[in-house]
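FW: tagging you since you asked about this chain on Friday. Here's the raw sequence from the shared folder, copied in full. Didn't touch anything.
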Amino acid sequence: MTVSVLAALAAGACFAVAGVLQQRSASTRPPEEALSWRLLSHLLRQPMWLSGIGLAIVAYGFQSLALAFGPLSLVQPLIVCELVFAIPLSARLHRVRLGMREWSGTVAVAAGLATALVTARPSGGDPATAHLGPWLLASGTVAAVVAGALVVCAYVAGVARASFMALAAGAVMGFQSVLLAATVARMPRGFVAVVSAWQTYVLVVASVGGLLLIQSAFREGPLAASVTVIDTTEPVVAVTVGATLFGETLHGGWPLTALTVTGVAATVVGIVCLDTSPAIAALHRRDTLRQESAAARGRGARSAPPGRSRRGFRP
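HL: got it, structure written out here
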């Protein structure tokens, strides 16, 4: 059990640093690259972003180790501690001091989400039992949530835009988790069973689309406005869709249901506190200035005469 706890905390720390590195890289890209494949193509050339992806892979390794020695009901809530690492680290790098409001919001999201996961903890179910009709209904519902969030993004700006973009990303990644469960369930039946299932190909599309949405959310605003919403939406969608499609059961009854509802409410309150925080707004302004500075450097490099760099003649 000790190995599981330590590995889960290590995974949370790695996820936190990975998110900070990815957000720092994505935040320098120009606004027109949001939701564009050009965003990913440019990020793939940035060592900092690639380091963030590498750390995320290491984090998944620690998560697998934790699950090998402990139950999901213990590991998943501990990994949520990434929020407690990520938001202060992001603020530190931007030289912005977090106050009581920001710390309270961060703790409320992490503690509320952990409480909801511990008390609801779905169990049972069989991914092989889901038929095409429920799959189509679930896919349509998730698509509607994503489309609705992206429509709202067109009418809001700043921190709120980052949060709604993150809502779309979290919904896609939550559905991706369900698709992954369905794909893994087919593996004992052999390679043909996996490659002949439509869920396998939708899984690939959802994974790539989710990555683009996450990086777009990181580009739109500070980490506190995006990672909190992603970490909340992803398990909610995964648990809800999994219970609907696979017949998973949620633990209920008094006081578990009350604790689950309280955890969800605390998470929502924490997200609102962070989204309306002046310190988080300051982080967004810092990111905006970094974008403008990076754009100005790019324009300067492109406008330099042939044979001349911005620092003078090349030898």
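FW: The chain is about 75% helix and 0% strand.
HL: agreed, and The radius of gyration is 21 Å.
FW: great, closing this out.
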